[in-house]
Design brief:
Layout (H helix, E strand, L loop, with lengths): L7 E3 L5 E3 L11 E2 L4 E2 L21 E4 L6 E6 L6 E8 L4 E8 L4 E5 L6 E9 L2 E9 L2
Antiparallel strand pairs: 1-2, 3-4, 5-6, 6-9, 7-8, 7-10, 10-11
Length: 137
């Protein structure tokens, strides 16, 4: 437990904790290549791995309703291939393919399915997106 009241404590590994106010808590932040000690109450004494920053990416799906082709346009580049899964309203997988975005757009075509509602899920490294699609004639 890292805790002190107005004094300094040296933990194993040389981490210095100053002005803590609760169990496993630190005022201020410490960061190096091996550990991060964060500000606040009742946090673990160190986090061994840093959490990558959350990046907000807007996705536009068009056209919706679609006939046989759907486009997904992203506000920022997404590295690597996408896994595209399309499900019918019963939850059955009716389409699966891996594709790479070109100019921040992924297009799936040849979707000659019955008219109705479908659910699509796009998955890439550090990216997940899902939405409803309507198939028309």
């Amino acid at each position: 437990m890292l805790s002190s009241q107005g004094t300094s404590s040296r933990a194993s590994g040389g981490v210095v904790v100053r002005q803590t106010i609760g169990q496993q808590s630190a005022i201020g932040n410490f960061k190096n290549t091996n550990a991060i000690v964060g500000q606040g109450f009742l946090q673990s004494e160190t986090m061994k791995t840093a959490v990558p920053p959350v990046i907000s990416i807007t996705t536009v799906t068009y056209p919706n309703p679609f006939i046989d082709r759907v486009n997904f346009q992203f506000s920022s580049p997404i590295a690597g291939p996408f896994k595209i899964s399309l499900f019918d309203v019963m939850g059955r997988l009716v389409y699966y393919k891996e594709k790479t975005a070109i100019n921040n757009i992924v297009t799936i075509d040849n979707l000659f399915f019955a008219q109705g509602e479908y659910f699509v899920k796009l998955t890439a490294k550090n990216f997940n997106y899902s939405t409803n699609l309507l198939k028309s004639k």
